[in-house]
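Re: your question from the hallway

Yes, I did run it. Sequences:
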Amino acid sequence: MTYDDYLAGEPVIVTAALTGGVHGKEANPNLPETPEEIGRAAAAAEAAGASVVHLHARRPNGERSFSTERFQAVTDAVREQADDVIVQHSTGGTGAPDDVRHQPLRTDPPPEMASLDMGPLNRYEHLTSENTRALVDSLLAEMHDRGIKPELEVFNDGHLNEVRGLLERADLADPAYATLIFGGGTLTPPRPGNLLNAVRNLPDGAAFNTLGFGRHQLPFATLGVLLGGHVRVGLEDNVYRDRGELAESNAQLVERVATVAETLGRPVASPAEAREILGL
Amino acid sequence: MTCPLLEYRDGDDDHSFDVARAYCTAVDAFVQPMRADVCNDRYDLHHADDCEFYRAHADDRTASANADDDASDANDDASDADDTGADA
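Structure:
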């Protein structure tokens, strides 16, 4: 994917990361946590232009849950309330043991996509998510068995080496789809030059998605649009609409980035178009 | 072991929740959901190792206890001085 894809006006896949598991309603009361709320948010995000929804599951008190049962409730609610949106489950989980990281893959039906963290990362002062190669390979194997396309989460440039290694040792359907992530801790610092560098270092033929945390969400999504990539927005990654102003909804953030993409000459992809682009 | 600084509350001056949520009494704020796994020592997370707020609180308590010890020593010294003065 290149600037030529921008010039050609190729459709942009907008992923809405609706809920996450790091922060919750204590950060923004508009953030959906229950299956019912997430289902409604998915439908609204789809109507605003999202073709993929990235999902986490929670306990009733908002805390993280990795259980298949909880993910089933969330994905059922999304499928009931949204029209045709692509369901993507998270397999991320700082501090969570390897066995529970597989559970989000085991819903019926399985998600069409699931995230796959490409290596270690640090969050906060003391929290490390190891994401060993053994875990990456075992998650990928189960995704392969269940017909789930991996979304390769690249938290720093070293993870680009891991993507190349993965492509050498595993059989991934084309195109490889990598989300380039920018933020604090051991993530790549959110500077435009670093996005350019990451795009240059993607394997040939790979498609990319762009994710900037917090106030970097909109500028990095805009850069992603200009560089021929796709974009991820949503309350999981950013709870604000503007400095000091909480976002009203996931749909509000989706609508804003869809307007940016269309203003720049790239239409947002429908779920059907996204499936074609991603080879689902 | 659950963090001794953790409570579950259904609201404060700025929030109101249907289900009680994790609240950190060290920083007087509701806990982010991922951090609640640290507070509850879930998975491979442990509040004494992984929570900077607990560690800072523990450091403060240690410093406070040391200060109390120093104050106690000072009182002891004063007492000794009084005794010495009495002896004179």
